[in-house]
Amino acid sequence: MKSIRQIKNLKGKKVLVRVDFNVPMKGGHILDDFRIRKALPTVKFLLKKGAKIILITHLGEDGSESLAPIIKRFFELSKCSKSQVSFFDNIRKFGGEVENYLSFAKKLSKMGDIYVNEAFSVSHREHASIVGLPKYLPSYAGLQLEEEVKNLSKVFKKPKHPFLLILGGKKFETKLPVIKRFLKTADDIFIGGALASQVFKEEGYETGTSLVEDKKYGLVSLVKNHKIMLPRDVVVLDGERKSIVSPNNLSKKENIIDIGPEAVKDLENKIKKAKMILWNGPLGKSSGNFNLATYKIIRAVARRKVVSIIGGGDTIDLISKLKMEKRFTFVSTGGGATLDFLANGTLPGIKALK
Fold this sequence. Notes:
- The strands form four sheets. The chain has a six-stranded parallel sheet, sandwiched between helices. It has a five-stranded parallel sheet with strand order 5-4-1-6-7. It has a three-stranded antiparallel sheet with strand order 12-11-13.
- It has 354 residues and is an alpha/beta fold.
- The chain is elongated, with a radius of gyration of 21 Å.
- Helices cover 35% and strands 18% of the residues.
- The longest helix is centred in the first third of the chain and has 15 residues, at 34-48.
- It is built from 14 helices and 16 strands.
- It has two domains: 4-147 and 347-351, Phosphoglycerate kinase, N-terminal domain (Rossmann fold, 3-Layer(aba) Sandwich), CATH 3.40.50; 161-305, Rossmann fold (3-Layer(aba) Sandwich), CATH 3.40.50.1260.
């Protein structure tokens, strides 16, 4: 990738910077501005070199949401002048974005002289502002995008052992390629969250009202691998009643909301021995404050002075709330993009910059 550090002359140039400010919102209020903060070094670097910036982002899935709270927070954090930085409208508002119409990308390109991708977290999407724009403008990677590639690549290039992979959250479809990719190189792979519930379902256990998919992924044979660890106990909810049970002992009304205390101990023991930890996704239900195990594991990893790389939107939100970002080697801005990069070693948005 070409870096923005390689641009020889930025004075007076208009730079289109694709960022991902699609941050968690509630009632029009920003819950976590992690992604906005991570883009600021690139913005400041470009401004220092004399560029004028047009930021391009989406908010929400369909582009109907106003960028007003995002713009307000950006200027509060950056203290930039509005004469130096402006925002394009919510990019998902336009039909050609998601469909990656080259005619739309060409139209966008006429607003600037240079394109910069600072949106690692959407670089797995083949959208016009990600893969179309680089066809029409000199294109470069932003500072955070470079950091993402550099740090996530550590797990491919001579990973330190013991190497522990922790996977939580949901959507087995996105996590399975990562498990298969690291079955050879990781020493231990811990599966928690709704992913574990999916394994229990395929093993024929009662999963009650837990979050599981109808699809089968062939997990029974996969989890026979000695490297894969599953929770020995789980926290379940039946109405208002919370209890700890063995995964093969659920009733039809119970809902798995977290991994249990024994599972936490097992994972903490692996963390104590690990030299490299890669973690994506919460270990319990992320809504409704059922994150006790995830908080405990965040603290356990943070205590270790080892290579620790964390990704996944919900996990990042919790780390951000705890103000513990600096306690890890690297906290990725990506969710699905991080998983795709780990599975494939690149992303469409990265390839487009070459």
